[in-house]
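[Meeting: bench + compute handoff]

Bench side (C.D.) handed over the final construct sequence. Compute side (W.E.) agreed to return the predicted structure before the next meeting so the bench team could plan truncations. Sequence as handed over:
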Amino acid sequence: MTLSPPRQATTLAQPHADVDHLLRDVLESARARAHAFGTEYELIWSEIARSVRGGKRFRSAIVLGTHEALGGSEHRAAVEVAAGFELLHTAFLIHDDLIDHDSVRRGKPNLAATMRAVSMATGSEEGPAQQWSEAAAVLAGDLALTRAHRLIGGVDLSRVQVEQLLDLLDETLLVSAGGELADTAYGLGLHVPDLEQAILVCESKTAMYSFRAPLRAGAILAGASVAEQMELDHVGRLLGRAFQLVDDLLGVFAPEDRIGKSNISDLREGKHTALILHAQQMPVWDAVAAGFGRADLDRRTADAMRAALAGSAAPRLVEDHVRQDLAEVEVRCATASLPEAMTDFVGGITAQVRDALDDVVGHVEEARCAAG
């Protein structure tokens, strides 16, 4: 699921353009330097740049919007940190596609698929081309991570603020990697999570780098108090958890042209999302279990599984969890000692997640009706 940049004061228009310009300059400089090592290495940087261009920029918008809403004045540093989060996001997507063996991102061949096609076009056999493209994806993700670290750690701020940002980046990588590792283990059937563990993956894998860290980074840039940073961290945890739960529903029920990737891959890979964990405790599981986690899952079987899930109470239970998290965000914003501009900004993000939830609820209803 993607969110549009949250609405904020018109003064954000130029900083958002500055993020794009900075990313373009950083990646173009790296691509030019890579030319000395051959056209294939240069292509990796071009593909990183293409991956960056495809995003909605909502993570960088959260950094910039938080900084502004809290009265910050470090605009150049905010742009650099915001750009760093976009590169961090790109790195995670590249590695995530590799882990999940996905070849499509945002409706187009992803970096690994592009590198594989280039290799085969020059005469490579399928096996070596696949291995080479996977190596390219590992390296591309590593390179994007390094650039993110360079941008965030190189800001012209006080030593205390820089150290806080670097500590935050370290925490973000530690937590997100732990969530990804657990999610992969669950998908492979090495462990079967309970609902609490599945929710923790949502918090670790997505909430940390998409919401908690950008909110806290913006607060650090604005010189906010530790209490304000921790309040925003809690809000980010709730928003990120809700975001991922909605995304898991979209991954099963939304049309592929809506989500830009396969809507059967989660079922094929056997991902133990909250939706699946609820379904496993219900009679509907008898109609789902045989196809769940099958590497050769075909579309017809997946459609039948989707229809069965839509007719059960499982999607509604996930929906209820999301609405509870969003309601708690609103309560905290109403009672926390945050500036009004900050609570309004968080309210805009909350509204977008709720709109996405309403959208997927419609898709669930369509699947249920289609099943008769």
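W.E. noted at the follow-up: The mean pLDDT is 91. C.D. will use this when planning the next construct.
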